């Protein structure tokens, strides 16, 4: 391995030793370090061949982390897309996570708010916006805000 390629390799391994990265994330970070494009591509290919860089593994990890933060599926999809994970891999990771999004929305809601029999429209809208911001859809929000979950 020539010196330039070795520098790219070492830099990539240092980044991967800290945490998982998507291919696009790692490529961006290596480019920021002013490494030539052909060398970066060669290193990324080699990392993928040795299974040290896998978008599917990264996607599964990101989904687990986001679920622990009580984020909903819409926000997780956006985060996966932002990180450069293919939509099919993202959807596969979401499906394999086997999360009950309704119960996660309820848990998220109850960790922030108390159930009240009647809410003023302004407060209700604020609570809905909060859950939307966490990435839950309308059905999840309705379930979370209902008194008995039905």
What does this structure look like?
- Helices cover 71% and strands 0% of the residues.
- The longest helix is centred in the first third of the chain and has 16 residues, at 3-18.
- It has helices spanning 3-18, 23-32, 37-49, 55-68, 73-82, 87-97, 101-112, 121-133, 138-145.
- The protein has three domains: 3-53, Orthogonal Bundle (Arc Repressor Mutant, subunit A); 56-97, Orthogonal Bundle (Arc Repressor Mutant, subunit A); 101-145.
- The protein contains nine helices and no strands.
User: Given the helix and strand composition, which structural class is it?
Assistant: mainly alpha
- Beta-sheet strand percentage? under 5%
**Number of domain modules:** 3
What is the C-level CATH assignment of the largest domain? Mainly Alpha
- Compute the average pLDDT: 94
User: What is the name of the CATH superfamily of the largest domain?
Assistant: Winged helix-like DNA-binding domain superfamily/Winged helix DNA-binding domain
Range of helix content: over 70%
Please tally the helical runs, counting DSSP H or I stretches of 4 or more residues: 9
Summarize the structure.
By secondary structure, the chain is mainly α.
Topology summary:
Layout: H1 3-18, H2 23-32, H3 37-49, H4 55-68, H5 73-82, H6 87-97, H7 101-112, H8 121-133, H9 138-145
Helix pairs in contact: 1-3, 2-3, 4-6, 5-6, 7-9
Summarize this structure as a short list of keywords or feature phrases.
150 residues, Arc Repressor Mutant, subunit A, mainly alpha, single chain
